[in-house]
Amino acid sequence: MTQAEYAEIVQKVRLVLEGKDQEVIQQLERQMHGAAERLQYERAARLRDRIASLRHATENQRVISARGEDQDVFGLVQEGNELQVQLLVIRGGRLIGQDSFAFEGGTQPTLGHRPVGWAPPGGAGGVLGSLLAQYYLGARHIPKTILTSHLPAEVDLLASMLSARARHPVEIRVPERGPKARLVEMAVGNARALLAQSLTSTAARERALAEVQQALGLPRLPRRIECTDISNISGVLAVGSLVTFVDGQPRRQEYKRFRIRTVLGADDYAMVREVLGRRFGKKDWPLPDLLLIDGGRGQLNAGILAAKEAGLTDLPLASLAKEEELVFRPDGPEPISLPDGSRGKHLLQQVRDETHRFALMYHRSLRGNSGLRSVLDEVPGIGARRKRLLLQRFGSLKRLRAASVDELRTVGGLPQRVAEAAHHLLNSVAQEDIATANERK
């Protein structure tokens, strides 16, 4: 443990002792989401467990100070078409029980949650309105105060109905500040943790694989998915990546990267064909249940050709275009679109995005190793002599980038076509480096 990590732990303990546990939880949640975005799943899981432990340790202490009231607290969170509701049951100012409810939109119920249900229309308000009406239908006790994270649909009618059933006034409201608002925040936080766990569970991954199989008409579950992507700037330092997911999870020890060898210029289709041709040449590698390509119809056709050349005419292929998130299939004249928020679509996007990230990381590492000098090596017509003269004439790579085409032509009798290519590539790489620097800020 580093000194900085130790100091961070001490600071978090101090905040908890001061009653600022929600601030600590929010910090941990930001760290968890950041780790997940960087695909550091093990660290994200550890942070999730720390958050759950902290919530468990502080719940009773926080609720005891609630003036001895009877209250039910409902917190709702949503991710795509998945909704999770957490209920805190408070009696006499003490938390005596909790319950959770999962809903999924669409035409099929979510399995393995209590209760099984569809998300009714009307968004969060519709879900809470329907849930409260059903939950209190057979309840022995209905408290005078029901707190919710969102205003239920038909709230006045619902409150009147519950008041008549309870034989005392029932208030349903969304608190904006104070202890009651903090109770709702607690319920929402617990619901968020449960939903995150649900989305990453084995059952969820199985449903995602089943959705992909059904949508693409695959002969079996795509337990092994491979995906390829190309990264280059106008054909310079072109590389390809191959990422593998097994049972819906990344298999990083099987990631592969390729430096493009046979393609000159910016021909992504030919590069896809080269990368897959080299991959199919590895006879000891297991074949995937689905080969996904980052791109559209053109990239898919290149993949089909590479598979045909390797004698793999039955290999399931598809491509995923980023602009409209459309999936292209070999036997489909039109692309398909999986429902927004579906687990299958999320899985394909995750595989595609991880492949793109891995290719881009390799491409940037090559640029970082050799700088803009490597760009000159990639321009046909610029050999060692002309490269040396260009650097001598302009003195620095910065001034070389700033030079016009006419200025480049004055060095070593550089032809117009070669000067234009060098100018374009130098400035393209410079813009990419600026974008990279901005991403890291």
Defining traits:
single chain, 441 residues, alpha/beta, Nucleotidyltransferase, domain 5, 17% strand, elongated
Summed up, what is this model?
The chain is an alpha/beta fold.
Outline the structure in words.
- There is one protein chain.
- This protein is an alpha/beta fold.
- It folds into 4 domains: 1-64, no CATH class; 65-200, 2-Layer Sandwich (Nucleotidyltransferase, domain 5), CATH 3.30.420; 206-368, Nucleotidyltransferase, domain 5 (2-Layer Sandwich), CATH 3.30.420; 371-440, DNA polymerase, domain 1, CATH 1.10.150.20.
- It is 51% helix and 17% strand.
- It is built from 15 helices and 12 strands.
- The strands form 2 sheets. Strands 6, 7, 8, 9, 10, 11 and 12 form a 7-stranded mixed beta sheet that branches.
CATH superfamily of the largest domain: UvrC, RNAse H endonuclease domain
Structural class: alpha/beta
- CATH structural fold name of the largest domain: Nucleotidyltransferase, domain 5
Distance between the termini: 26 Å
Beta strand count: 12
Q: Average pLDDT across residues?
A: 80
Quickly give the CATH architecture of the largest domain.
2-Layer Sandwich
Q: Can you give the helix content as a percent range?
A: 40-55%
Provide a count of the helices: 15
Residue runs with pLDDT of under 50 for 5 or more positions: 106-119, 433-441
Please tell me the total number of domains: 4
The first-level CATH class of the largest domain is given as Alpha Beta
C-alpha geometry: elongated
